[in-house]
Write a structure and sequence with these properties.
This protein has 799 residues and is an alpha/beta fold. The strands form four sheets. Strands 9, 10, 11, 12, 13 and 14 form a six-stranded mixed β-sheet that branches. A hairpin with a 2-residue loop joins strand 4 (81-84) and strand 5. Helix 36 (754-767) runs antiparallel to helix 37 (776-798).
Length: 799
């Protein structure tokens, strides 16, 4: 029997043998309650961080949880709470609760549960308490012994009746499919549709996937594996429909045992939905469920009933199905037309047909204004197109309807929104909860991606490898593994991951910015010819977007070598591709880059002309504060401070004050302008603020100039050496990296460290040995080195 009891009704208190237990942190009671409710499974660290310390950084939050857990163990007994790789667990029988926790929701919540915790709970903790109150049963008053005895006979008779009913239920219960174990994969085939109505084709499969993914009992086989399996099966059409028969062959080939096939057929004036489970090893149908629908509107509810039976036949308990089975017509949509548009939009997005995807998702919400999943898809679409205001508007619409979503879809919506907003720490927590509660290739991939974006590269690598264990053909997981390896400066390993992605999909390295990221690793390893070949493969692609990105990368490669004139040509061709493609964002970026190439060549007038063109483009809504800060940067560098003020004003209008990224962009821009106007003392704190969300070399270079202007020469030198070590390729600030040794030499000269200055100048001239002749930076470095040599000779002669 537990020595400690947690009283939860009303004021929460933990009572021990010597009376109430008092903790140093009142959140200890909340932590014990969460672990007691979850016993024996425990609670993931990420969920505890989300509920108890949502405003702390990940590191500070983990430290706080560890302190709370240590305090609990001190006051209960050592090991009462165990911290392990999955989170925290309360050892069984350590603490008893004064309530029972049911597996399903009750009709009436228990409002007294944790009504007074002794502190103001976070909104996230309040949300958890509200959910648990629906599963709490308070103890009933003790029955008098006499009352029990009067009912003894009745109870005996009732027991006989219950036993009889139990026997009958056992005889008639759904037969469980032999051989299916919890967590096994299940291939969901495409719909067999004999109704003649194409409306059912994709829509019912999408709805079925949403339903089945609620289950913690099974894993849906990832469709991303199909192209690889098809190739092994010598099926040349890689987008072939996954019929029920073909799905069974895929299952045999890929060592998956069970396949679910759905069929929609006519029955009189109505319809019939049938689900069949095939055992690929036995090559036999081992279970079947079928439900009628008198009308088209009843098809989704009929599918719902079929899938409930399927889950039960696969061994999922009635309790678990009841807890994870929200009505399909509610969590998706009752409109088959809207569901088809949503499904077709998702297919178009996967194929890179972004405009078509938007039109289809827009049609879905026009057909059903309550379709939360479609609103969320549109929110992601607008954010991807850099239209933040529209993205926020559609995410807000989705969140207003979030109660219609399954728990999994709610978490996925929150994860997407947080990730697009750039809140890396919160994204890691939500994505981690998803991966823990609904483990599969996609949730572990998303978790790994969130960790990667938070620069937690070692953890990201582990999570992405876990994703690959579920699906070894997941191309994007290998791409993100490469990015994580690059973040850890393991460039050879990164190239190995890129090669793995290329083996799975020959075009994987020639899409969007992946090509530049891949080529950049060759650059870092000094393999410039291979980088050049990678970028030229990109410009050979038929699309204007791909051609423009390849030309931009070749411009960066030219700048890396000091080939300013060549870079000007490549960036000019990229500008033309962007104009033809009607992409103001790409055109603006390419013009900023050509402005920097002109400055490197010493043509300040041409650099300013590019800025004039940029200022005509920045009204485009796709230009967000972070990008507008790059405009400010380039305006300042060519002395166009009035234009810099205009860009700053746009940042102020467009910024989200809750976004660390936006606040940093605003702070940096103000600091860069203040520095250019000679107000260095006020500029430095603003430039430091600008580095809180990103450490881009261009921003760091401005900070070095700020330190130099305030005569903090040692600090300036440390900053320059820091960004010189980064070897930045393909981002704003690449030119700062290129000339960093020359800047370092100037600082060393001011500090009187002339021998070190001469060494830095030689290093710069080695870096620029293949540069265009006559570049101002190179000529200046040669003059300074010659002067240093003369001074050294005079110093030597004086001795």
């Amino acid at each position: 029997m537990a020595r400690f009891q947690l009283r939860t009704l009303g004021k929460a208190v933990l009572e021990g043998p010597d009376g109430p237990v008092v903790f140093a942190d009142p959140k200890a009671i909340a932590m014990i309650a969460m672990l007691a409710v979850a016993e024996p499974a425990g609670v993931s660290e990420d969920e505890l961080l989300l509920r108890l310390t949502p405003d702390a950084t990940a590191g500070a939050g983990r430290a706080e949880l560890a302190r709370i857990a240590a305090d609990i163990n001190d006051r209960l007994h050592p090991g009462a709470i165990v911290h392990h790789s999955r989170g925290y667990t309360l050892i069984p029988d350590s603490v008893a609760m004064d309530v029972s926790v049911l597996s399903t929701d009750r009709a009436t919540p228990e409002p007294r549960f944790l009504a007074d915790l002794g502190f103001e709970p976070t909104p996230e903790l309040d949300e958890w308490i509200a959910a648990v109150r629906r599963r709490i049963a308070a103890p009933e008053a003790r029955k008098h012994a006499a009352r029990r005895s009067r009912r003894a006979v009745v109870a005996g008779l009732a027991a006989i009746a219950v036993i009889s009913l139990a026997v009958l239920a056992f005889v008639n219960r759904p037969r469980v499919v032999a051989g299916f174990a919890q967590g096994d994969p299940l291939i969901l085939a495409d719909l067999t549709n004999t109704t003649g109505d194409t409306l059912f084709d994709r829509s019912l499969v999408t709805a079925a996937a949403v339903d089945l993914q609620q289950s913690a009992h099974l894993q849906l086989y990832p469709r991303s594996r199909l192209p690889d399996v098809y190739r092994r099966m010598q099926i040349t059409k890689l987008d072939s429909a996954l019929t029920f028969e073909l799905a069974q062959q895929v299952a045999e080939r890929d060592n998956v045992r069970f396949v679910l096939g759905l069929e929609a057929s006519r029955e009189g004036n109505g319809y019939r939905i049938t689900g069949r489970i095939a055992d690929a090893r036995r090559r036999a149908i081992v279970a079947e469920a079928s439900e009628p629908s008198e009308t088209k509107a009843g098809v989704i509810p009929a599918l719902d009933r079929v899938l409930t039976t399927v889950r039960r036949r696969l061994g999922e308990s009635a309790t678990d199905v009841g807890a994870r089975a929200a009505p399909l017509a509610f969590v998706t949509t009752a409109s088959l037309e809207a569901l088809r548009s949503y499904s077709d939009g998702a297919t178009a997005w996967t194929r890179g047909e972004f405009r078509i995807a938007k039109e289809l998702w827009q049609r879905a919400v026009d057909l059903d204004t309550g379709f939360a999943m479609a609103y969320g898809a549109l929110g992601g679409w607008y954010y991807y197109q850099h239209s933040r205001a529209d993205g926020e508007r559609y995410f807000a619409e989705a969140e207003r309807r979030a109660s219609r979503l399954t728990e999994r879809e709610q978490l996925m919506l929150a994860d997407r929104h947080i990730a697009y907003r750039g809140n890396a720490d919160s994204s890691v927590i939500v994505a981690g909860i998803l991966a823990t509660k609904y483990p599969n290739s996609s949730t572990w991939y998303n978790y790994g991606t969130a960790l990667m974006q938070a620069s937690r590269y070692a953890e990201a690598t582990k999570a992405l490898k876990q994703s690959i264990r579920y699906d070894s053909t997941q191309v994007n997981a290998y791409i993100n593994l490469a990015t994580s390896a690059s973040g850890a400066r393991e460039y050879e390993q990164a190239l190995a991951y890129y090669a793995a992605a290329g083996r799975l999909d020959s075009m994987a390295l020639y899409r969007n910015n992946i090509n530049q990221e891949w080529g950049a690793k060759f650059v870092r390893l000094g393999r410039l010819a291979e980088a050049d070949a990678a970028f030229r493969g990109m410009i050979a692609r038929p699309g204007l977007t791909e051609r423009g990105l390849g030309l931009r990368s070749l411009g960066y490669l030219a700048l890396w070598q000091g080939h300013a004139k060549e870079a000007i040509g490549y960036f000019g061709a990229a500008i033309e591709a962007a104009r033809q493609n009607r992409s103001p964002l790409s055109e603006t970026r390419n013009r900023l880059l050509r402005s920097s190439a002109y400055r490197l060549a010493g043509n300040l007038a041409a650099a300013r002309t590019e800025i004039d063109s940029v200022m005509r483009l920045i009204a485009a809504p796709a230009l967000e504060p972070g990008f507008l800060a790059e405009v400010v940067d380039q305006c300042v560098r060519v002395g166009r401070l009035q234009e810099a003020d205009s860009a700053l004003a746009l940042i102020a209008v467009r910024m989200d004050t809750a976004s660390k990224v936006d606040r940093a962009a605003f702070g940096f821009s103000r600091g860069a302008i203040a520095l250019a106007r000679g107000r260095a003392d006020s500029a430095v704190p603003l430039l430091v603020e600008g580095l809180k969300a990103t450490g881009g070399v261009a921003r760091v270079a401005h900070l070095a100039r700020g330190y130099e202007a305030t005569n903090q020469l040692d600090s300036a030198l440390a900053v320059v050496r820091r960004y010189d070590s980064l070897g930045t390729f393909g981002t704003a600030g690449q030119e700062d990296w290129w000339r960093a040794p020359s800047v370092e030499a100037a600082l060393l000269q001011r500090l009187g460290r002339r021998d070190e200055a001469a060494t830095a100048l030689r290093r710069f001239l080695d870096r620029a040995q293949n540069a265009d002749p006559g570049l101002p930076d190179v000529e200046d470095a040669r003059r300074r080195l010659a002067a240093e040599g003369g001074m050294a000779a005079r110093r030597q002669g004086g001795k």
